[in-house]
Hints:
The complex is a heterodimer of chains A (about 650) and B (about 250). With about 650 residues, chain A is mainly α. Chain A folds into 4 domains: about 15-245, Fumarate Reductase Cytochrome B subunit; about 270-375, Alpha-helical ferredoxin (Fumarate Reductase Iron-sulfur Protein, Chain B, domain 2), CATH 1.10.1060.10; about 405-530, Rossmann fold (3-Layer(aba) Sandwich), CATH 3.40.50; about 535-650, Rossmann fold, CATH 3.40.50. Chain A has 28 helices and 10 strands. In chain A, helix 2 (about 60-70) packs antiparallel against helix 9 and helix 13 (about 310-325) packs across helix 17 (about 360-375). The longest helix of chain A is centred in the first third of the chain and has 32 residues, at about 115-145. By secondary structure, chain B is of the alpha/beta class. Chain B contains 6 helices and 13 strands. In chain B, strand 3 (about 20-25) and strand 4 form a beta hairpin. Chain B is globular, with a radius of gyration of 22 Å. The model of chain B has no long low-confidence stretch (mean pLDDT about 90). The chains are: A mainly alpha (about 650), B alpha/beta (about 250). The interface of A and B includes residues 376 and 475 of A.
Amino acid sequence: MGRVPYWNISYGIGIDLLAVPLIIIFLYGLYGHWKRIKQGKARLTFSLRNSSLKIGPVYIGALFTKGILGSRIYKKLFTGVAHGFLFWGMFLLSIGTALVFLNVLFGLPVFKGAFNRWFMSFALDAGGLAALSGTLFLLIRRLAFPPEGLVAPKARPGFVLMEVAITVIILTGFLLEALRIAHNGFDEGAFVGNWVAGLLGGGDSLSLHQIVWWGHGFVALAFIAYIPYSPLIHLVLAPINTSLAIPVPGPKMGVLDFSAFEDEEAEELPSLGVCKLTDFSRKRLLDFSSCLWCGRCHEVCPAAQTGKSLSPKGVIVTLSEYMNKDKFQDDSLLDEISANAIYSCTTCAACMEVCPVSVNQPKAIMRMRQHLLMERSEIPDIMGQAHKSLEARQHPFFGTGSGPNDWRKDMDIPSFEEGKTEYLLWIGCAITYEERTQKIARSMVNILQKAGVSFGVLEESRCTGDPAKQMGNEFLFSEIAQQNIEEFTSLGIKKIITMCPHCYNSFTRHYPPLGGLFKVVPHSVFINSLIKSGRLELRNGEQTICYHDPCYLGRRNNIFAEPRNVVASLGRLIEMPRNRENSFCCGGGGGNYWAEEEGTRINQARAKEALDTGAVKIATACPFCLLMLTDGLKKYADVEKAYDIAELVNNQLKDG
Amino acid sequence: MHIVVLAKVVPDYEVPSVDFELVSNRAHPRYTRMIGLYDENAIEMGVQLKEKHAASLTIMSYGRKEDIQILRKSIAMGGEKLVLIQGTSDDPFVIADNLKTAIEQLGGVDLVLAGRQSADMDRGIVPGVLGEMLGSRFIPQVSAVENEDGAWKVSQVTETGLRELEFVGNGVLSITSVPENVPRIPAVRAIFAAKKKSVQTMSGRDGDESWMSEVSVEIPKMESTCEFLPVEDMNETAMTLLKRLKEERYL
């Protein structure tokens, strides 16, 4: 006998009618989310050249890959597969249910022939089995062996109820199928239903079928109606959130407009940064609503993993709780999260990288940091001294023992000349004012001279202003950046080589909105091109070298291959367990080079990881990373092991 | 209550010794100019007193007109008024005399705070001389000030610890640096507001400096010598190091 919809059920249409109010409840729940999200500020659009396909504000590629396919979920294999089983299983079951409705309403012939056998029976049973195994894995994991990130600083209530509901829906679905098969006979393709019918022992219980049918229907509809009020709202919000996230790596901080402060007539001045929910953009509020509290960000955060008070998950949890409690105007937000936590962020963007729903945790944290510094003048003591130095001396290295020209002592280095020089070799503050990193510039100069590159330096070393931006002082950053842009423009500078990824990031991300458009190339990329083109000849060694990815070069700018190519041309490249986009920060980002750390020191944790590879040398391509690793290594090694790739290349130049 | 804080713009006080050079017996003009280190502590203390007692706070400086942009930071920190007496002398008596005149012109000043080092090439004499000229009490090396029932309660840092002092009437205090008076970072809106604030400038009087002439100014020479000790036997190396340190009278 073929399948008959609503078989053995009287007034089955009642379930369809019941769906109407429950769908209204569902929609009302969605409206509640919109009502909360729209209290944020409308985001100013940030145009991107070479961006992926975009319709309005929606990035189509991100919508499909991260939003619908959930590509980032699979970075954690078991959890990812379980989630995939659950989602795609339920997706199949939803299609099956929709087809049944279409059959009832319009007579769509879904219960006939091969389609019935392979989709309505086999595929739906397979989907149900996949969803059941997925949800049971997630449920047991959550209850019996939750990973640290799931419970720290707190677990999200509501998931267990929904996972139990899914389990009940699937089990009752299989039971229904089995009861139908037990009465009507073997159903080709329904391998689970046939097996369960066998377990029932061939008994025929029409009344039990009716009870289970109505129970299954009620639970399923109630489950759907409850989705917007539960953590499963991420089913709706996550694809939206990922599709609206600008698909460039790392947080996009943009630049702030201070013209209102210059305006003598201005009646009301804008609040800088964020101190309450309504100061955030709608996109950020969507972030907070979309967050699953899965804790993947907590598990990769260098601050959270070394005992600091910051947990990126904790920050987003607090923000979403404020949203749920309608505390949109409550300015206790920053005190609740704590200035200590806000300043512990190294802005490494590891949290963003792993977030399955594209939440931008660093941007939220940085916005709050901007408020702390620019409105409340709150900053940790040591970072405050660096800030003060940057304000007064245009560099943050207070108490330095180096003068601005010490790095070039006894060297004949040309100054940049308009029309004669091709590249500006940008030195930057981290190289000028630290004795250890001065060797990077000296090596780079030697490399460029050896390769016959037309380059020059500025008469006076400067800072890009990046430390100010990372500490939260957009105003100071803008002042320094505008001064640099004016000088570059007057000197006719068009191409810049940077040795510091923070400078590179500033020049490429933050200078263009201020009018500074330059072709900027990081030294690792430039050296790689010189080696590839044969302009540099190296003595290849047998030494093992592991490479530490600087966050601002790798994760924030996707430059992974070039520095590795350089290292591979010097010796045998060894990878650390956490590498490339999963690299672990050195601890120096976000102004935390000037910080008194609580808990374990991040640089020591990373230095240990590098040492444990057994590599003879540790290479990096960032002066801050070099300083942090050099310092971190002191705990474990007596000899110098960390080098910038420019130093390594310079040491292995043929006839060098 | 009216408080005046004296602030002086000086060359960067953190220029590394190896990089320090003189031009015409003074620090090279290439060095960044900034408000004196302890002056900022004095400003912070003044702002705290202003906030606590709803006092008026005037920042006063003796120096060049170009210093105004730098001095605006003191307004952004919380100063209400900026007075600049234009002059270039570094004679403490000349500076103090000019400050005295300006303070008397302001009138009704109860307390004058100054950094413990600045305004006279780090000699720290100006506040004491000014106190004498104003007929006010002068207390150096002050780390905290309170006003209770019209009396000033002052903590003075000594070589061995802290001394609590109390006086009634006007006073001039030179301020030292303690964690409680770490200068605040001005909020951005305060920086913009400070840019718009008008500055009262006065022409300073030249004093009689003929009683003394500057013969020469020299920077102490930094010398470093390096001697390598053999390390084959660490015990012997340690003995050699000890012997050498004693020979050179470091021990």
